[in-house]
């Protein structure tokens, strides 16, 4: 009889605790919802306070941790959110890609480009269709004078996000790289560290690929770009076959664009990359079939990691 009474008491306590936990979870979610609304209104300090309140109630809320880190980033305190994002990366599979992406942005804004590159790569592996992450990868590579990684990264970004202001900017960066330019350090920014032998060889592969194009004549700027990119993709693709390390760049970027260079899609790809120019915009309008063929190739061609 005493045993039955004990079981009843335990069951009562379990139910009561469950109800309390459920209430706490609901309260935390309500606070996070308020925080998201405040964040959308650009009231970042108030949003941060709501997220902190929520985490006091539900210390394991990964969504609250992510949102806290996001509001901290928007308020100019991104590095404070990095420990929260690391918890999300290890504790929530659904938010992992977003947490890696935000970490990359924070490191990028803090001019920690190597760290930003690492986080961007992990984010791309988890969500390869997220255009912004591809853009971050390209930008942080450019800031490290990794011109091949940057150029292919910008190309990859534009494939996902053509015809925007950001893609027009990316095209400008591509042209700058092809013409031999490096990204100048911003005021107060240290010059890039010395690059390794593999990166230097990849940079030289671009220079060698376009060395004599100034002596050639093409019917249009789009034709010239197609020829330049084909030569660059080919040089880089053949070079990485002899290199070891940096599997992400070799498999995901270099091999993929080397395959494209060997296809018949380079004229269409060059126009897509430069679609912000009047000549390319008109070419795209006049040549729907090559553009459709390029789209089909992109969808059918797998990219490895």
In short:
The chain has 305 residues and is mainly alpha-helical.
Overview of the molecule:
This protein is mostly helical and 305 residues long. Among the domains are: 27-94, Tetratricopeptide repeat domain (Serine Threonine Protein Phosphatase 5, Tetratricopeptide repeat, Alpha Horseshoe), CATH 1.25.40.10; 201-300, no CATH class. The chain has helices spanning 2-40, 44-57, 62-74, 82-91, 96-109, 113-126, 131-143, 147-160, 165-178, 197-209, 221-240, 247-261, 266-273, 278-286, 288-300. Helix 2 (44-57) packs antiparallel against helix 3 (62-74). 40% of the residues are buried.
What keywords describe this structure?
305 residues; mainly alpha; Serine Threonine Protein Phosphatase 5, Tetratricopeptide repeat; 0% strand; elongated
SS strand fraction: under 5%
Class inferred from helices and paired strands: mainly alpha
Number of helices, where a helix is a run of at least 4 consecutive DSSP H or I residues: 15
Q: What is the tally of beta strands?
A: 0
Q: Could you list the spans in which at least 5 consecutive residues all have pLDDT below 50?
A: 5-18
Radius of gyration: 25 Å
């Amino acid at each position: 009889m005493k045993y039955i009474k004990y079981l009843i008491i335990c069951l009562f306590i379990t139910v009561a605790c469950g109800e309390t936990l459920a209430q706490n979870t609901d309260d935390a979610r309500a606070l996070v919802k308020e925080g998201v609304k405040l964040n959308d209104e650009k009231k970042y300090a108030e949003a941060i306070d709501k997220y902190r309140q929520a985490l006091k109630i539900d210390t394991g809320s990964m969504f609250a941790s992510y949102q806290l880190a996001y509001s901290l980033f928007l308020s100019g305190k991104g590095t404070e959110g990095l420990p929260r994002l690391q918890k999300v990366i290890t504790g929530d599979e659904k938010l992992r890609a977003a947490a890696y992406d935000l970490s990359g942005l924070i490191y990028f804004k803090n001019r920690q480009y190597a760290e930003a590159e690492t986080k961007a790569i992990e984010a791309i592996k988890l969500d390869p269709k997220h255009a912004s992450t591809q853009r971050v990868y390209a930008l942080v590579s450019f800031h490290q004078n990794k011109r091949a990684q940057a150029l292919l990264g910008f190309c990859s970004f534009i494939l996902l996000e053509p015809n925007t202001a950001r893609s027009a900017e990316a095209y400008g960066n591509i042209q700058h790289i092809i013409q031999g330019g490096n990204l100048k350090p911003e005021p107060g920014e240290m010059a890039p560290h010395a690059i390794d032998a593999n990166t230097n060889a990849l940079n030289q592969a671009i220079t060698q690929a376009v060395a004599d194009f100034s002596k050639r004549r093409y019917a249009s700027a789009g034709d010239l770009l197609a020829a330049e990119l084909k030569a660059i993709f080919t040089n880089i693709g053949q070079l990485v076959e002899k290199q070891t390390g940096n599997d992400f760049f070799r498999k995901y970027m270099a091999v993929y664009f080397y395959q494209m260079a060997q296809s018949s899609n380079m004229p269409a790809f060059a126009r897509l990359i430069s679609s912000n120019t009047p000549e390319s915009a008109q070419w795209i309008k006049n040549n729907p079939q090559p553009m459709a063929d390029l789209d089909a190739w992109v969808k059918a061609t797998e990219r490895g990691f």
